[in-house]
Automatic annotation (TrEMBL):
Region described as Disordered: spans on this chain: 324-346
UniProt domain Arabidopsis retrotransposon Orf1 C-terminal: residue ranges: 53-211
InterPro entries reported for this sequence: ATHILA_Orf1_C
UniProt name for this protein: Arabidopsis retrotransposon Orf1 C-terminal domain-containing protein
Superkingdom to which the source organism belongs: Eukaryota
Length: 387
């Protein structure tokens, strides 16, 4: 029996809509369900699937971020998911994501989707099992501006007082947290963009940074898959297919794997454009517009194991001075108007940067995860499958 508070049972997350006709949908919407099932219009949704991203271990190791990144991954329970680099497929991903619906029923929350032309219904707890995510925390919709999430956003950005909806991932100061958030946007949350930060990002960061799970992470993923936005649900779809023992159409096109390597991080303005694996320079932004370009690794300065999860400019400059780095003021390109904050270019002296050897954590694959088998002439049984 699922335990729910009085308000959770009777509070709806979405406004009432008229009941659709039987011909309009395969799923009849009940008036006592919280159904999140958006309609897709050409001007509302990007129907081109993107491959889910994988972390780049070489980049993380050379930047001195691997240990902290794995700490965040393990804290939120995503170790097995992160290590799954299964093939992803164009039509499988597109159909899965665009047909995805989430029903937060008070007794049996569930998700509905299609694997090609096969409609499937899964209990939310089984959906979580397929992703190897612990099904705990409230599955209720996050309110617009929860105080706890707003305070966390201000902490990781060093007191950026903008609303969550206007905040940017780039404003996150510590590189491991920022990298983790880009990974969430392009792999875990299958409908996220890679610019604005959202309550979904911050709910995952609460779990990653504090170890507590006030929000049901599986429900967060389900809600994002059922909404509009760019499609990054390839690994989710592939894990579902493998968990259910289904087959991939052999004519389906594979999506090209994407890694959050140094090239990808340049596009996110995470590092300077002239950075390479032997000379990684992090771009750290402050709320007044000033920017620091800081050679990595800087394990002591950027550790996620101590609070606050951001740094003041004075602390950054003092730490770099102690470590023997030099700094100089350089104008922005193009040159800014008078009064525009400048950026500080921090360069190391002529010496070899310290490298920190970090361990890699491996996990046992989840129960029931058999990998994806290509369909070899045996068609799946048609008709809706109830899991």
């Amino acid at each position: 029996m699922h335990n729910h508070t009085f308000g959770e049972v009777f509070e709806r997350d979405t406004p009432r809509v008229a009941r659709p006709s039987r011909a309009a949908t395969r799923v009849r919407r009940s008036y006592d369900e919280d159904v999140i099932a958006p309609s897709f219009e050409d001007d509302e949704d990007n129907g081109i699937p993107n491959a889910s991203s994988f972390p780049c271990i070489d980049f993380l190791r050379n930047a001195g971020l691997l240990d902290d990144f794995l700490f965040l991954i393990n804290s939120v329970g995503l170790s097995t998911y992160m290590e799954d680099e299964s093939d992803q497929f164009y039509r499988l991903t597109k159909i899965f994501v665009e047909s995805f619906k989430f029903s937060n029923s008070p007794f049996t929350p569930s998700v509905k989707f299609k694997i090609y032309d096969m409609p499937i219904t899964m209990k939310l707890k089984d959906f979580c099992a397929a992703l190897d995510i612990t099904p705990i925390g409230t599955a209720k919709k996050i309110e617009n501006r929860p105080k706890a999430l707003t305070e966390l956003y201000r902490e990781v950005t060093n007191d950026d007082d903008r609303t969550i909806q206007r905040g940017k991932i780039r404003n996150i100061q510590l590189p491991a947290i920022r990298y983790f958030t880009y990974y969430l946007a392009t792999s875990i949350l299958g409908r996220e963009n890679t610019s604005n930060i959202s309550s979904y990002h911050l709910a995952f960061l609460v779990a990653a940074l504090t170890g507590s799970t006030p929000y049901h992470l599986g429900a967060l993923i389900a809600r994002r898959l059922a909404s509009k936005g760019p499609i990054y649900g390839g690994i989710v779809a592939s894990r579902i297919v493998a968990y259910l023992g289904l087959y991939v159409d052999p004519s389906d096109e594979k999506l090209i794997p994407i890694k959050l390597d140094i090239t990808a991080m340049k596009s996110h303005q995470f590092v300077t454009t002239d950075s390479n694996l032997e000379n990684i320079v992090y771009k750290m932004l402050f709320i007044d517009g000033d920017e620091r370009e800081i050679p990595l690794p800087q394990a002591d300065l950027f550790s996620v194991r101590r609070r606050p999860w951001s740094r003041f400019k004075e602390e950054v400059d003092e730490q770099l001075r102690i470590r023997g780095f030099t700094s100089s003021t350089t104008p922005r390109t193009p040159s800014p108007p008078t009064g525009t904050p400048s950026r500080i270019l921090v360069r190391p002296p002529a010496c070899t940067k310290d490298r920190i050897l970090l361990h890699h954590i491996t996990e046992v694959p989840p129960h029931g995860h058999r990998g994806i088998d290509l369909h070899l002439g045996q068609k799946p049984k048609l008709g809706e499958v109830i899991i």
